[in-house]
């Protein structure tokens, strides 16, 4: 037994502990003593105070009631109105997961029903929300975890050993360095390597969807990167330029933990599976398969916002709301037990949106801040209300002439913003009633939003809790899930609005709709997200009127006659918000690293932060290494 488990069991009453194990950074104590499980007389709380670790007491699996009898007993305890639909038993860990429409009614006032379930069945209950919109993806992710319960227990215990086996080990020489393997003076292929004498941590591992060949991927051939030495992967959010290459790590032998929020795990798995599908449809060989995506899901450890967790012997991780998309995180690392505190914003929105609260600015300590600069240039100041008004005008004018509006959108983020805005405007009769088609994957991502209302802003959360007000359940939204349905939308008469991926028109249904509508002058195309140079979206947005495609090996010239509009409003912060974020960051960082932006924007923002706040700044290039301490 590792040192920390021995020390914890020493302070607990003799003869009460029958087993002790790690679940990642958490420590689980198993007991066969029924009286001790029912009332441990504060001894577990005292151990938590002494060791400052999360310690949980559970009944030994031998005490647990048979699952069939336990399910009947649980159904007697919880009210019918809770809408409990499924009970998944995890015998190795004495846990039962209850899927319910109203988790609060299963939990009971101050957790009283969960306690009653534990006392009567000796199963520790966890409650998951059943999304109002059914999602096969959420169901399949949960089944991957439940079907592999034994493996998952061993993996979590192994992760705990990596964190705690050096618990009393003498400290080595202390230093911290950060290698920029992507997204430095560019947007795309985000990847950073955080190193200490004890730890190797990957922060994001994405692709550049607009590039072909070697420029698509991070510099994983850098001399300091060795996959066999990686201790942990931390993911800020689900967009492919931050998460698209993570399954590739598993393909080449990585077996360690991936840390992120629950919605990030779900959405990134969906986007990765969609990327495989698109690559196959284009006749390309995908760089990984759905098996590697499953491996990633199986090795993911989900953290809530503000939850502090050890991830290596000398690094603690805390995730904070980044305001960018559902579950997006500012990742904060406490390194060397207070030696240095480093935070990376990932993609940041420092302003309240229709879907999310603004990004967090309050930290216990912070010495170095790494911030994105997608819209960090002096000219990148956006009037958000004007942009929404402009979008409404385009929709109104297009609908009046009987045309269709195509909005290429990123799978998660702006699409849900647009859904909430348009649903409200149609309800208020500010734009004419017309069907809104949500193509394939966007429907699943909207379902994931309804599964995690606690990550949404207060207003939307309250709407989702009351089904009749849930904007995502509005009858105006129509799901498109096949090529046949897509063609029917293109051929039907009358106006409609279509939200389709990819937002950069680098593949997927947005390109198919574009081909169908481009030569019709009554239709409109609205760009709402960043278009990287070289992408089809960038070319169309820049005003190209002739686009060459290849269909079945034959060239096909397309005349662009539809109206093309760009609405500069995104789920990123603009120049003003980025400057304001650094100003409001508490405590004020001593150094700011500017990344994830075109070269001129990174340099411009870094210079402006230095001049305005007298903070040391740097805008590194790819492959540069920065010593943080």
As for the number of domains, it is: 4
What is the CA–CA distance across the termini?
A: 34 Å
CATH architectural group of the largest domain:
4-Layer Sandwich
Residues in β-strands, percent: 15-25%
Number of DSSP helices? 21
Q: What does the model show?
A:
By secondary structure, the chain is an alpha/beta fold. The protein folds into 4 domains: 3-62, 2-Layer Sandwich (GMP Synthetase, Chain A, domain 3), CATH 3.30.300.230; 64-130, K homology (KH) domain (GMP Synthetase, Chain A, domain 3, 2-Layer Sandwich); 176-378 and 572-627, Ribonuclease Z/Hydroxyacylglutathione hydrolase-like (Metallo-beta-lactamase, Chain A), CATH 3.60.15; 384-566, Rossmann fold. It has 21 helices and 28 strands. Strands 12-11-10-9-8-7-28 form a 7-stranded mixed beta sheet. The protein has a 7-stranded mixed beta sheet with strand order 13-14-15-16-17-26-27. Strands 20-19-21-18-22-25 form a 6-stranded parallel beta sheet, sandwiched between helices. The protein is globular.
Summarize the structure.
The protein has 629 residues and is an alpha/beta fold. Helix content is 34%, strand content 22%.
């Amino acid at each position: 037994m590792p040192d920390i488990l021995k020390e914890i069991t020493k302070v607990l009453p003799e003869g009460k502990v029958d087993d002790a194990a790690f679940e990642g950074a958490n420590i689980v104590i198993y007991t066969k003593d029924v009286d001790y499980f029912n009332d441990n007389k504060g001894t577990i709380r005292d151990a938590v105070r002494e060791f400052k670790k999360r310690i949980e007491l559970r009944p030994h699996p031998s005490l647990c009631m048979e699952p069939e009898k336990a399910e009947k007993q649980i159904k007697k305890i919880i009210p019918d109105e809770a809408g409990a639909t499924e009970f998944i038993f995890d015998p190795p860990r004495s846990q039962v997961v209850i899927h319910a429409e109203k988790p609060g009614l299963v939990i009971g006032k101050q957790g009283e029903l969960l306690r009653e379930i534990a006392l009567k069945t000796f199963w520790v209950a966890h409650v998951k929300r059943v999304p109002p919109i059914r999602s096969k993806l959420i169901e399949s992710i949960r089944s991957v975890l439940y079907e592999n319960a034994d493996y998952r227990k061993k993996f979590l215990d192994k992760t705990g050993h990596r964190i705690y086996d050096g618990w009393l080990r003498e400290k080595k020489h202390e230093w911290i360095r950060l290698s920029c393997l992507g997204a430095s003076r560019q947007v795309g292929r985000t990847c950073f390597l955080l190193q200490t004498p004890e730890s190797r941590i990957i922060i994001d591992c994405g692709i550049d969807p607009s590039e072909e060949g070697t420029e698509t991927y991070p510099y994983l051939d850098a001399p300091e990167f060795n996959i066999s030495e990686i201790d942990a992967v931390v993911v800020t959010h689900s967009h492919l330029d931050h998460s698209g290459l993570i399954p590739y790590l598993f393909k080449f032998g990585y077996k360690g933990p991936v840390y992120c929020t629950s919605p990030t795990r779900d959405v990134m798995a969906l986007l990765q599976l969609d990327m495989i599908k698109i690559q196959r449809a284009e006749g390309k060989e995908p760089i990984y398969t759905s098996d590697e995506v499953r491996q990633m899901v199986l090795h993911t450890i989900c953290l809530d916002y503000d939850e502090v967790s050890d991830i290596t012997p000398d690094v603690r991780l805390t995730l904070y709301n980044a305001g960018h998309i559902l579950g997006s995180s500012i990742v904060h690392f406490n390194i060397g037990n207070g030696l240095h505190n480093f935070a990376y914003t990932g993609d940041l929105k420092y302003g309240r949106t229709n879907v999310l609260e603004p990004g967090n600015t309050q930290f216990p300590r912070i010495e170095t801040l790494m911030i994105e600069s997608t819209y960090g240039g002096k000219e990148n100041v956006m009037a958000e209300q004007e942009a929404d008004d402009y979008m409404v005008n385009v929709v109104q004018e297009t609908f009046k002439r009987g045309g269709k509006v195509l909005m290429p959108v990123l799978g998660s983020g702006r699409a849900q913003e647009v859904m909430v805005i348009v649903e409200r405007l149609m309800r208020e009769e500010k734009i004419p009633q017309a069907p809104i088609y949500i193509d394939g994957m966007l429907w699943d991502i909207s379902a994931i939003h309804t599964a995690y209302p606690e990550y949404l802003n207060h207003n939307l959360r309250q709407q989702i809790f009351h089904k009749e007000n849930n904007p995502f359940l509005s009858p105006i939204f129509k799901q498109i899930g096949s090529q046949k349905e897509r063609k029917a939308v293109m051929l039907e008469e009358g106006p409609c609005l279509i939200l389709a991926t990819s937002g950069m028109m680098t593949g997927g249904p947005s390109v198919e709709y574009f081909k169908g509508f481009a030569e019709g002058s009554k239709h409109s195309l609205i760009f709402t997200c960043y278009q990287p140079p070289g992408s089809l979206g960038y070319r169309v947005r820049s005003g190209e009127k002739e686009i060459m495609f290849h269909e079945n090996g034959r060239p096909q010239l397309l005349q662009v006659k539809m109206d093309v509009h760009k609405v500069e409003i995104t789920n990123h912060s603009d120049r003003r918000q980025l400057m304001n974020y650094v100003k409001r960051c508490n405590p004020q960082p001593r150094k700011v690293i500017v990344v994830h932006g075109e070269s001129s924007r990174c340099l411009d923002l870094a210079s402006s932060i230095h001049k305005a706040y007298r903070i040391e700044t740097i805008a590194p290039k790819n492959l540069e290494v920065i010593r943080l301490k």
